[in-house]
Amino acid sequence: MIAELLKGKKVVLASASPRRKEILKNVGIRPLYIPSNIDEEMLDIPPYKLVMMHSENKAKEVAQHLDNKCIVIGADTVVVLDGKILGKPNSKYQAFDYLEKLSGKKHLVYTGVTICYKKIVKTFYEKTSVEFDKLSEFDIENYVETRESFDKAGAYGIQGFGSQFIKKINGCYFNVMGFPINRFYQEIKKILMK
């Protein structure tokens, strides 16, 4: 169990994401939350490399200000449709556009995670395929009005109102939420149980 593994350790999440907080809380981890000040630049590199780079930059930026006995976790998530990254929408119109594009199609969700502990920096990513139902204009308009779209990659949340539109997923559900908890558990075990 993660909570037992991390008992007595200082854990810091380099993120302000409510979804990541919720996932960690559900497995008994109560980290400190210190969001990083890293600019999440959308570079023209493969999505898995981008999320790993962002997660590593976030974790290292926060870790440099802390004792190296703290376990610092950085994470970054992107939605990719037809090779194009759909980030967090910056307006209702962009949210509508993203959802219209996702309608009736499969897309990929990549999350990069970095763990900084002592002199160890471990970075990995997880990928999940998500298939959306065909969405009507009514569906999209009403969903955008919930305001759930605005702080989420791809303009939807799998754990909220957006769950109504998801036909099928292949891979880790929690990865789509923004933190692949099973993979994190496997990786943190390798680091702490050496």
Q: Could you describe the 3D structure shown?
A:
By secondary structure, this protein is an alpha/beta fold. It has a single domain (2-192), classed as Maf protein. It is built from seven helices and seven strands; from the N terminus they run αβαβαββαββαβαα. Strands 1, 2, 3, 4, 5, 6 and 7 form a seven-stranded mixed sheet that branches. Helix 4 crosses helix 5. It starts with a helix and ends with a helix. The mean pLDDT is 92.
Mean pLDDT: 92
Please give the largest β-sheet.
7 strands, mixed
Radius of gyration: 17 Å
Helix coverage percent of residues? 25-40%
CATH class group? Alpha Beta
* Topology pattern, helix = H, strand = E: HEHEHEEHEEHEHH
**According to CATH, what is the topology?**
Maf protein
Low-pLDDT sequence parts: none
Distance between the termini: 16 Å
Q: How many beta strands in the DSSP annotation?
A: 7
* Strand coverage percent: 25-35%
Given helix and strand content, the structural type is alpha/beta
CATH architecture: Alpha-Beta Complex
How many distinct domains? 1
Cα shape: elongated
Number of helices: 7
